[in-house]
Design brief:
By secondary structure, this protein is of the alpha/beta class. Helix content is 42%, strand content 16%. The strands form two sheets. It has a six-stranded mixed beta sheet. Strands 2-1-3-10-4 form a five-stranded mixed beta sheet, sandwiched between helices.
Length: 360
């Protein structure tokens, strides 16, 4: 693992040195919001990386200085409320958890409708963000919510199954309840007799502890951060793949009032943040698994045959997604093919060919 603590400390120190306002510099206030707590990976790195990096780049010209006001953990909005909060101007810059908004942000589900392809946060983040820049759908969806899209973030290496009691195959989920969010619930349709229960990351611990569910679908780093091992000490390694769940946006009214120089820096740093967070997610992946085991957890790997069987049994959610966008005049089919092509070029070919069901 890279020494992120040392790197972040150095970066913060440099930012403090370079962000000293020069004479006549204009101060611009920026209210940053997310409903998740400050300890969440992407929130912590917004504080430790995004903000100092913006300050450092603006300090190069000395024209502008940001007055950052961060509000996390539900003080302004809950996790599901960031999109609406940003629309209303409760925040200037926000971290939107897109899996909660499939009807308003359908194109953001691109990686979610293609499970079992790429367990690599870096590859998925880059591919999805490039699609967002090459096709207008994603940016148009945020524009309808009075927001400007900056970049997509991937904070997980791959979804896994965590359970109260040990299972050795996805088929053993039959007859039980699984907590999940967003498109993940559709994956469970491929396992007969399994009930998906909608929830959020901050809810999952209690959902298992109270017996509302027996299993939860999250990733190892989140399991470590939210101490899931205490209630679900068994992980089935199914490697469903990385999924983009976070998008950095700016309130449109606020954006229109920003100087062009500040707009450009925010766009540049958003991409750097995208790669930074994805890199940390991958660097921490194995350490998080090790920490889970050290805390008393047990990990069992699903067989490749079981993974293939599960992938094949999932409804053709990729074709549904693409045709749904096509019907709205968006390039859903082209986006899906382009995305899979980018992952293939990065060295990832899925257990299932999600382009096989396309009609165009």
């Amino acid at each position: 693992m890279k020494n992120w603590t040392r790197r972040l400390a150095l970066g913060t120190a440099l930012a403090a040195m370079t962000a000293i306002p020069s004479f006549g510099a204009e101060t611009i206030k920026a209210v940053v919001i997310d409903g998740y707590p400050a300890r969440a990976l992407w929130v912590k790195e917004f504080t430790n990386f995004f903000i100092p990096e913006v300050d450092k780049r603006l300090a190069a010209s000395g024209n502008y200085v940001m007055d950052w006001q961060e509000s996390y953990g539900g003080s302004i909005v809950k996790p599901k409320g960031v999109l609406e909060g940003m629309k209303l101007g409760l925040g200037d810059i926000g971290i939107v958890t897109t899996i909660f908004h499939s009807s308003k942000l359908p194109s953001q589900a691109l990686s979610a409708v293609t499970p079992f392809v790429a367990p690599d946060a870096r590859a998925v983040a880059k591919a999805v963000d490039e699609i967002a820049k090459e096709f207008p759908a994603m940016q148009n969806e945020f524009a309808k919510q009075n927001q400007v899209y900056l970049a997509t973030g991937v904070v997980l290496d791959t979804y896994q199954l965590f359970s109260k009691d040990q299972i050795k195959s996805p088929s053993e989920l039959s007859g039980s309840k699984v907590a999940a969010a967003g498109m993940n619930l559709r994956y469970l349709e491929g396992i007969e007799g399994t009930a998906g229960v909608r929830g959020g990351l901050t809810d999952f611990y209690n959902m298992v502890q109270t017996g509302l569910v027996e299993h939860v679908m999250i990733w190892p780093e989140a399991a470590k951060t939210f101490k899931i091992v205490e209630v679900a000490p068994y992980m089935l390694d199914v490697s469903l793949g990385a999924v983009n769940t976070k998008t950095i946006t700016v309130n449109k009214d606020y954006w229109d009032g920003l100087p062009e120089e500040v707009q450009g820096v925010l766009q540049e740093v958003a991409v750097a943040y995208r790669d930074h967070v994805a890199g940390i997610a991958m660097d921490r992946a194995q350490a998080s698994r090790d920490a889970y085991v050290a805390a008393g957890g047990t990990i069992v790997a699903a067989s490749e045959a079981d993974r293939a069987a599960w992938a094949a049994a999932i409804p053709d959610i990729a074709a549904e997604w693409a045709s749904g966008l096509d019907a709205k005049g968006e390039a859903g089919t082209e986006m899906l093919n382009a995305y899979l092509g980018k992952l293939e070029a990065a060295g990832y070919t899925g257990v299932r060919d999600w382009s096989a069901g396309l009609t165009n």
